[in-house]
Design a protein that fits this description.
Elements lengths: L8 H5 L5 H14 L5 E5 L3 H11 L12 E5 H12 L3 H9 L6 H7 L2 H18 L6 H6 L3 H6 L6 H9 L4 H16 L2 H8 L6 E2 H9 L11 H19 L16 H8 L2 E2 L6 E5 L10 E4 H6 L9 E4 L2 H17 L13 E4 L6 H13 L5 E4 L4 H11 L4 E3 L4 H7 L9 H8 L4 H9 L9 H20 L1
Parallel strand pairs: 3-4, 7-8, 7-9, 9-10
Antiparallel strand pairs: 1-2, 5-6, 5-8
Helix pairs in contact: 7-11, 10-14, 11-12, 11-14, 14-15, 17-23, 20-22, 21-22
InterPro entries: CHP02679_N, DUF2399
Pfam families: DUF2399, DUF3323
Protein name: DUF2399 domain-containing protein
């Protein structure tokens, strides 16, 4: 499968030439109750043959022609989509079709007594605590009968209930709290806002969770099944509203994938934490001065006056980022360059502090939208998370690496370098590219702090070139 494309997974896999492959894989998954066995695809046209040849790449040694029969282990296909977009087969199906991929065994399980009991008890608990039946016509109408569709396996979220049942979590209470949340979001909104003394258009997620559970402000965090179930319900209801024409507009089409969760919350009247998601930037000019700044998602969101940015140099670790910040300030002062003399195309230093948070992604995307010619350079640790961050950023646009290559890695491996875990070695070995292969063979980590000398040399050359071009 080609890895250079930066299309969204939905756009990429919506290619009609991949329909035969996908339908065969989904059918096999249903029948085999998981990623088992092999799929056989008969290639119909020359266009399909060419597209599948591009998709499989080196996985297939022979040339694909119209009339060819391709045999492929399901495990191989699952690995390909996991590497490309970090999706598993059920997630890809739901992304494309807006409904869960239900295996034959799972369909039978939906009819089992345990499943029925969970919904029956949750409905009884709702009636006991709320004072009326969950089969309320208003709630059913507002949520498009989400509870019944969930029971039938036709609404998003049923896998979360299954997971809660398998892990002995309190699936009854989880389902009850979700139903109670939907009641106050879609039916008694004014009563809830009055109880909370909320006059703004949105209620904070932890405050809402505290109100619903009467004791746990973190109940609807995405780290818990109850939080994931609520979000799935809200997303499902929003999708139904679009299908039924109850929502008009294409705002959902303008939302980037990584911002979808926050968008769905906002549509339902909830706002998630936007100040804990942050990014560090260094933009030396008259507006920002010569200090690194920390920008949170809230202020980035509210900024309607985006400047036209220059190239971005993204670093994983704060220590390396600040090292380059101080070196930049020293170089500018030693060179006699004042803030007024710094050109608009002076490159920007960005630090993601070990993970690509939504704020960092949002900042990068807005920079690219404001200046399509903006180039992104990335440097991170030589370990699995460092490689995965690069892959995560590649979903936003073309990424160029800065000293993050096999040669640099080999040069800095030391006898005291920390070892990679067996699982990390296995994962790296399944990835494409010289660097992951080299890392899987040497089984060592090299941290970004080990290459600060090289990074400084490259960075100073970059800013010298920019300043030199402006002085001509």
């Amino acid at each position: 499968m080609e890895t250079k494309t930066r299309k969204s997974a939905k756009h990429y896999y919506s290619d009609p030439m991949l329909n035969g492959l996908l339908e065969a894989a989904f059918k096999k998954y249903r029948g085999q109750n998981g990623v088992r066995g092999k799929i056989n695809i008969e290639v119909v046209s020359s266009d399909e043959a060419l597209r599948l040849q591009e998709f499989f790449g080196s996985r297939l040694e022979r040339l694909i022609r119209p009339g060819s029969i391709i045999e492929l282990p399901m495990k191989v296909f699952a690995e390909e989509i996991a590497k490309g977009y970090n999706l598993d087969l059920p997630e890809l199906y739901e992304l494309l079709h807006g409904a869960p991929l239900v295996t034959n065994a799972e369909r039978r399980q939906l009819q089992e007594q345990a499943w029925h009991t969970v919904f029956e008890h949750a409905s009884s608990l709702f009636e006991k605590r709320m004072g009326f039946s969950v089969s309320n016509p208003i709630l059913e109408s507002k949520t498009f009968n989400w509870l019944q569709r969930l029971y039938d396996g036709k609404a998003s979220g049923y896998r979360i209930v299954q997971y809660a049942m398998r892990t002995n979590a309190n699936s009854v209470e989880m389902l009850f709290y979700c139903l109670k949340a939907l009641w106050y979001l879609y039916v008694e909104t004014d009563h809830m806002l009055a109880e909370l003394s909320v006059n703004a258009p949105y209620v904070q997620l932890p405050i809402f969770a505290q109100f619903i559970t009467e004791g746990d402000p973190h109940a609807f965090d995405m780290g818990f099944p109850s939080g994931r179930l609520l979000w799935q319900a809200l997303d499902d209801i929003y999708t139904q509203e679009l299908k039924n024409g109850q929502r008009i507009g294409n705002d959902h089409l303008l939302v980037h994938d990584f911002m979808k969760r926050r968008f769905i919350y906002q549509v339902a009247g909830i706002t998630a934490d936007e100040i804990s998601s942050f990014v560090h930037v260094f933009i030396p000019n008259e507006h920002y001065g010569t200090a690194a700044r920390t920008l949170n998602l809230s202020e980035l969101h509210d900024n309607s006056n985006w400047f036209k940015p220059a190239n971005l140099y993204v670093f994983e670790n704060p220590s390396v980022f600040m090292f380059l910040v101080y070196e930049t300030i020293h170089f500018l002062e030693a060179s006699g360059v004042t803030l007024e003399q710094i050109p608009d195309n002076f490159p920007i230093l960005v630090c993601i502090s070990g993970q690509a948070r939504d704020a960092a992604k949002y900042f990068i995307v807005k920079c690219i939208e404001t200046n399509p010619n903006c180039t992104i350079f990335y440097s991170g640790d030589f370990d699995l998370p460092g490689i995965q961050i690069k892959m995560n950023l590649e979903l936003l646009g073309d990424i160029h690496v800065m000293r993050m290559d096999a040669a640099t890695y080999k040069e800095h491996i030391h006898s005291r370098s920390r070892p990679l875990t067996k699982q990390d070695v296995k994962t790296l070995g399944s990835m494409q590219g010289d660097l992951p292969k080299e890392m899987s063979e040497n089984r060592k980590k090299v941290y970004q702090e080990a290459i600060t000398k090289e990074l400084r040399e490259d960075w100073i050359q970059v800013i010298k070139k920019v300043l030199g071009a402006c002085s001509k």
